[in-house]
Write a structure and sequence with these properties.
about 35% helix, Adenine-n6-DNA-methyltransferase TaqI, Chain A, domain 2, alpha+beta, about 425 residues, 4-stranded antiparallel sheet, 12 helices, Helix Hairpins, single chain
Length: about 425
Amino acid sequence: MVEQASSLKTGVKYKETPIGKIPVDWEVVRLGDVCDIIGGSTPSTKNKEFWGGEIPFATPTDITNLEGREISGTKQSITPEGLSSCGAHLLPTGSILLTSRATLGACAVNSKAMATNQGFASLVCKEKAHNWFVFYKMISLQREMDRLGSGSTFKEVSKHNIRSLALPLPPFPEQRKIADILTTVDKAIEKTTQVIEKTKEFKKGLMQRLLTRGIGHNKFKKTEIGDIPEEWEVVKLEQVADLKNGINFRKEQKGEKGILTIDVLNMYSTGIFINPTDLYRIDLDLINKEDYILKEGDILFVRSSVKREGVGWACLFKSINEKVTFCGFIIRARLIGAKISPEFLTYFLRSDRVRALLISGAGQVAITNISQNTLQDLNIVIPSHSEQKEIVGVLSSIDEQIEKESKHKEQLETLKKGLMQVLLTGKLRVGV
């Protein structure tokens, strides 16, 4: 990446065009002039002979659920008979699969020949255009694709509008160099993402072991929550914590003034602590309602969640330099006594076993809710103070590593965004 960055240069001469200033040696082209626009089609689902073959068959969901830039496999596949039955096209390797319905402008490059349904207007680049340069340019044009979309049931962009999209096109060697630079950053992002996911998987397995088997135990006992070390104690959450629902307020009380408020959206952190950097304020007088003011070590639960798997998720509050409260979709647990550390308890509450118990005990109408009664009756374990501290130390060190890699990924994504803005427009040139 350093070697490629050293080839960047300024001092470029520009010319005015219908799409703004571009370098004098670039040209403005229509997408249809440099790419064939290929639509898709779906074989009849009533004919089983058309399905389950060796030809990958992409739908927009395959693209929107894709991690990374390349697609090699799809959820569905079709046979050669299915392909010919509906007039679908077999897209050659290196095509840009571009969604033109519902989700507009999502794209990926296929590393294996495949067909698509009618939700695509895929691009097969001609000699003048480098496929990865066009791929990155299409990502930068997603807002424009959305603007061009129309339709009442779902948005769709016509092939005519896609063909008419105007692009600034550098000479081919410069297209390739720009694509190489952005690809290098993307590969670094993908590698960092893999590290994060592998570390999360490692942590998940370690939590399962540490929070059920502990550290250095040889003797175990059967309890209502399964086998645990003999030395551990099982108690109800209500024996160690006082619970309180959050405060309710009117929509007009939410704004720029008042007390900082934790919302459900602030709860889904990677680490056990709430991130307090993006809190809103509510204009309420809480002078005689001190119970609504959070204290260091308070544990918060998601009481109501649109997604069932989100209910009961626990986070730990760390005090900041001003007062903070919590909204009515959250339940606060304040520890009584010092038998259990808030850090250990939060990790325990995030374990798979406890998550499954809380989700199964939740009620659901329009959204999923959990009650104080469900939380009060929850069985928790209490190891010795020294073992709690040791377990927290192990898990928090992994959280720190995940946080470090996540910040690195954010930095790379910011770098990529900045490079796309200047390289794809010619504001910054690359030496070839």
